[in-house]
Amino acid sequence: AEEIMKECDKGAMRDAGIIAAAQKVEHYEIATYGTLKTFAQTMGLDDVVSLLQETLDQEKTADQKLTEVAESTINMEAMEEVEAEEE
Residue 58 and residue 2: Cα distance in Å, rounded? Predict the structure, then answer.
């Protein structure tokens, strides 16, 4: 995200890039917590499974919120910026 902020002017394109970077992190975290939860289930660590599920749910919620922001406004605004630059 820092690189995007340095290389892009303020605007929707920059915002879309930051959202994409944040979602990349969320997807990594979702995969990690999901894997750890599966290991905990295999080992019968029910308390750990419960905590990891809670964390996994939070990460999925964060990812969904980022998707909603991107799809509701930012992606369209970014596309409009690109089209305006091409004219």
Answer: 24
Total residues found in the chain within this entry: 87
How far is the C-alpha of 53 from the C-alpha of 38, rounded, in Å? 10
7 CB burial (10 A radius; 0-12, 13-18, 19+): exposed
Q: How is residue 72 annotated by DSSP?
A: I
CA–CA gap between residue 36 and residue 21 (Å, rounded) = 23
Q: Which residues contact 52 (CB under 8 A, 6 or more apart)?
A: 33, 36, 37, 40
Domains along the chain with CATH numbers: 2-79 (1.20.1260.10)
Task: State pTM to two decimals.
Answer: 0.80
List pLDDT tens digits, range 21-32.
999 999 999 999
CA gap 26, 22 in Å, rounded: 6
